[in-house]
Amino acid sequence: MAETLDRPTTVEGEYSCWLPRHRRSPGVARLLLRTFLGGFADGERFAELGELLLSELVTNAVEHARVPAGRLVKVRFALEADRLRVEVHDASPQRPVPGPAPARPDAEAGRGLLLVRELSDGWGCCPRAGGIGKFVWFECTPAGPPGAGAGTSATDAAMTPAGPGTA
User: Fold this and answer.
1) pLDDT single digits (tens) 106-134
2) Is the distance from CB of 8 to CB of 16 less than 8 angstroms?
3) Helix, strand, coil share of the chain (percent; to 5)
4) Beta strand 83-90 with 122-127: parallel, antiparallel or unpaired?
5) Which of 5, 8, 59, 96 has the highest local Cβ count within 10 Å?
């Protein structure tokens, strides 16, 4: 089942671990983020938005990444002052593309990346170091207004690793 598969890496202000590509992994990732944020004074300010956007990215990695059997998904969280950075790594080189906006009212899927784009302060997609796969990231602040992230897209930030998560 969806438990972490290795010893998590924890550095002051950072956390990362690998998860199986399983339908329960988005829920496990949300719990991990909530636990991580609970270790910081006022960390809960990031929880609601962070969990929503993390869940969308992990769901995309689990459901849409076309990778060989047995490949894992890595989540990485970093908290610095008033900024949360979340990364989701997978073995697929295929870049995510937001669906058409607005999504059809009766559509059951296709809104995840639109939510990430509209609700984050910035997001993007970068190749992983070593050439296998990619990671999709977002950053948010607790006071970030909806739509603030619309200025940074996966295309604009495609080659902007920004931070230690490029490994």
Assistant:
1) 655 567 888 999 999 999 999 998 878 99
2) yes
3) 30, 25, 45
4) unpaired
5) 96
